[in-house]
Design a protein that fits this description.
The chain has 304 residues and is of the alpha/beta class. The chain is built from twelve helices and eight strands. Helix 2 packs antiparallel against helix 11, helix 7 runs parallel beside helix 8 and helix 8 crosses helix 9.
């Protein structure tokens, strides 16, 4: 079990967006730098959403100003629509991640769009890239589908619903497609089933998985994803996070907990576990509450 597993750090975006504390852009940029020093090579640094709705993400441009481009590191900006995409293009982000939903209920609440409306929005962004913007130095593009394993408004989400959305995104030529358990409703067996369906719908795409630990199944779901052959997983330092538009959603799986599990099994993540634990404690102090991750309390093993 020596294959590398890429962990995309999402703490500065998904981790902070549901916290009561609103951190200044300079602090958020410092968070990114600390996490990169601990081994993060892809990191979701900002979200280009309206600060009226997600004040924790205000000042995305200022965050990126504090993060000049560096070789070997990729800073990702999340967008919900074309306006967010325009903002992202005006900054030095390396990647743009477009958020969509597997359900109409969440899509209408989060973006004011049905599933078909969201796919049309993504199609417009893809067309713009093909027509004018996919030049050298332009940010790469990925898509993340929320509510794959359950929706707070529509309830259960069928495997066919997910496969249909994945297939539509793949047909646009998007190279990386994420599957997100936004409310932490999934189980390992359902993870296997929907990963297999997504792979059939998009055999050429890279699949990326994003789990929340709302019901204590996050690491088990990550295990199932790795066993199903997925090599790209999201995680948030300290286990902080959640979605302000999904009632009851709590934190992402913790980066340090995931790194510990994978590296104990022999997988290579490229992270420094001790440095991650220090970063988790630092962010806990910054947001005014202890980070909920297990490793930030127990530490690694064996003790050094």
């Amino acid at each position: 079990m020596s294959r590398p597993i890429q962990i995309v750090e999402v703490g500065p975006r998904d981790g902070l967006q549901n916290e009561k504390a609103v951190l200044a852009p300079a602090v958020r940029a410092e968070m990114v730098r600390r996490l990169e020093a601990a081994g993060a090579r892809r990191i979701e640094a900002v979200s280009f959403v309206h600060p009226k709705y997600v004040p924790q993400m205000a000042g995305a441009e200022a965050v990126m100003e504090g993060l000049p481009r560096e070789a070997g590191r990729s800073r990702i900006g999340l967008v919900l629509n074309g306006r967010g995409y325009d903002r992202a293009l005006a900054t030095p982000v390396d990647e743009v991640n477009v958020a969509l939903s597997a359900t109409d209920g969440f899509g209408l609440k989060n973006q004011g769009l049905t599933v078909q409306g969201q796919l049309a929005m993504l199609g417009e962004i893809v067309a713009r890239r093909h027509n004018a913007e996919a030049s050298e130095g332009a940010p790469s593009l990925s898509a993340m589908i929320s509510c794959v394993w359950g929706c707070p408004f529509d309830g259960e989400v069928s495997t066919q619903q997910v496969a249909d959305v994945v297939g539509a995104i793949a047909a646009m030529g998007v190279a990386e497609i994420g599957l997100a358990d936004t409310i932490g409703a999934g189980d390992p067996w359902a993870v296997t089933k929907k990963v297999e369906a997504a792979r059939r719908a998009a055999p050429e795409a890279t699949l990326r998985l994003h789990f929340h630990d709302t019901r204590n199944t996050g690491l088990a779901n990550a295990y199932a994803g790795v066993e199903a052959g997925v090599d790209v997983l999201d995680a948030s330092v300290g286990g902080i996070g959640g979605c302000p538009f999904a009632p009851g959603a709590t934190g992402n799986i913790a980066t340090e907990d995931l790194v510990y599990m994978l590296e104990r099994a022999g997988f290579d993540t490229g992270y420094d576990l001790d440095a991650l634990i220090v970063s988790a404690k630092w962010i806990g102090q910054a947001i005014g509450r202890p980070a909920p991750s297990a490793l930030s309390r127990a530490g690694g093993f064996p003790k050094r």
